[in-house]
Design brief:
Layout: H1 2-13, E1 29-34, E2 37-41, E3 47-50, E4 56-59, H2 67-75, E5 82-86, H3 92-95, H4 98-103, E6 107-111, H5 112-119, E7 132-134, E8 137-142, E9 145-150, E10 162-165, E11 170-172, H6 193-206, E12 212-214, H7 223-245, H8 250-256, H9 263-266, H10 273-286
This protein binds zinc ion.
């Protein structure tokens, strides 16, 4: 799985290569979170799925070439059509399935900024843009759940959404949680380290020890992994801010390697310890 994520993320960074990628080897793994709610892993951001009498409610949809496999995985747990798709943000590994799902009748929901960012892309598909957008919160009542969706500001991007199934205590964090690995913070896309930490802390206030957490990337998680990410990122912030205040420039901070002791636990191919250092430096220097 880790290899798939790495490939998807590096691939995102090199978008022109998208069409050349071999999606035929990707398989969708379905994990039951609890009755009627599933986590689907393929290639790219983890997908959340609620099924029931009303229809399928899908959170994120990975890449277009995976649509047939995604549809088959949904079919395996429900005979109802996909009624709604919620995009947790605009990145291509979370929204690539929008055209196919919208084409088969799904209504796409996302933060206002997700729609504007998707609409500005060169290959924007007007019929596949979010139809329902929101600025702060929206609640969808489907399949017996009250699905509360809220927007943390300037965290992973400027259009993030966290999805909370209040009644059954399940959360899909979008890319506000990379479980067990350094997160990608898209500064050019409106994200920030401070916003990211604030979003994690707000989620941590909302959840308890029984909450099942679907992260944007990584395995099905709990409050334990959420808190570990918060602690790590707060240390990252403190250490790098101290070096900035000492007058070090970005390369000097990287050379000082202030995150060395985090490397073994948190480093991965897409967000290496060096890249985490540079992201934190740039974000903290900008504020
Ligand atoms: Zn993302």
């Amino acid at each position: 799985m880790r290899i798939l994520i790495i490939a998807a993320m590096s691939f995102l960074a090199a978008a022109p290569a998208l069409g050349q990628q071999d999606f035929s080897k990707v398989e969708i793994k379905t994990t039951r979170v609890l009755d009627g709610i599933y986590m689907l892993e393929g290639w790219g951001g983890n997908i959340g799925l609620s099924v029931g009498d009303d229809g399928a409610f899908v959170i994120d949809d990975q890449f277009a070439p995976l649509n047939a496999k995604l549809t088959a995985a949904i079919r395996a747990v429900t005979d109802k059509p996909v009624e709604f798709v919620l995009n947790t943000h605009h990145h291509g590994d979370h929204t690539g399935g929008n055209p196919a799902l919208a084409g088969s009748g799904a209504t796409i929901i996302a933060h206002d900024n997700v729609r504007s960012r998707l609409a500005s892309e060169d290959d924007a598909a007007p019929d596949a843009l979010p139809v329902i957008t929101f600025s702060q919160t929206v609640t969808v009542r489907r399949n017996g759940h009250e699905i509360h969706i809220y927007h943390p500001e300037n965290a992973h991007t400027d259009g993030d959404a966290v999805v909370y199934f209040r009644d059954v205590n399940v959360v899909h964090m979008g890319d506000i949680l990379f479980s067990g690995m350094y997160p990608y913070i898209d500064i050019d896309g409106g994200g920030s380290l401070d916003g990211y930490i604030a979003a994690l802390e707000a989620a941590n206030q909302m959840v308890d020890g029984d909450t099942k957490i679907i992260p944007g990337h990584g395995p099905l998680s709990s409050k334990t992994e959420l808190e570990a990410s918060i602690e790590m990122l707060k240390s990252v912030r403190t250490r790098i801010l101290a070096l900035i205040n000492d007058g070090l420039d970005e390369d000097d901070v990287v050379a000082a390697n202030p995150l060395a002791d985090f490397h073994d636990e948190w480093n991965w191919n897409f967000i290496t310890t060096e890249r985490m250092t540079r992201i934190a430096f740039r974000s903290l220097s900008a504020t």
